[in-house]
Amino acid sequence: MKQIFLIFFFFALGLPCFGQSKALSYTLSVEFSPSFMNRSTLTVRSGADSSFIVLKGYKSLNKKELSFCDTSTLKAIDLSRLTAFLKTYKLSVKATKKSTFKKKHGNLPKYEDIGFDGINVDLSLTVNANTSKYHFWSPKRGSEDGKLMGILFEIMQKAFPMDKPFGYQSYEYIKELKEYF
Question: Rounded CA gap, 76 and 30, in Å?
Fold first, then answer.
């Protein structure tokens, strides 16, 4: 009788005792291309066992030579707001391809689609081997894209504070990059 009760009990709990994790595992890659700064790439990896963030800054547009590369481990709580936001972010619905820009608008882009003092942002979100890509230009503060950038800057500033040993080159870059948003 006890065995039947235990089997039913574990079954009713959804079998958490067998190592099933309900945490969302994902990789978010963000490429920043500001008008008057060097490019950078941010990678946020959230896994069941560990999470980390990497910020790479490049010396030139071709991204062949690194200016800096900083990495920091993160706790699940550090990514909880981002994880919750990504569950509702309509990345795959809003996805656009820069390669189809000319097909849609002819040889010259519309003035409202480009800018001279702003930032291009390319996102790539991979969840369970499914990748969605998205591109936007200088998001407005109240927009979904603006909210995402606000969350990412909170994470970056926590991961790369100035008071870490040896400092972080990322700290100064993040301060300047944030002005684009």
Answer: 20
- The answer to whether the CB of 36 falls within 8 A of the CB of 11 is no
C-alpha–C-alpha distance, residues 28 and 48, integer Å: 15
- For residue 98, give both structure tokens: 């820069």
Domain borders along the chain are 21-178
- pTM attached to this predicted model: 0.74
- DSSP annotation of 141 reads T
CA separation for the pair 177, 181 (Å, rounded): 8
CA–CA separation, 146 vs 140, rounded Å?
Answer: 6
Per-residue pLDDT reduced to its tens digit, 101-118? 434 444 444 444 555 678
Strand extents, DSSP E, the chain: 26-34, 40-46, 51-58, 66-74, 119-127, 130-137
Return the residue matching tokens 């606000």. 150
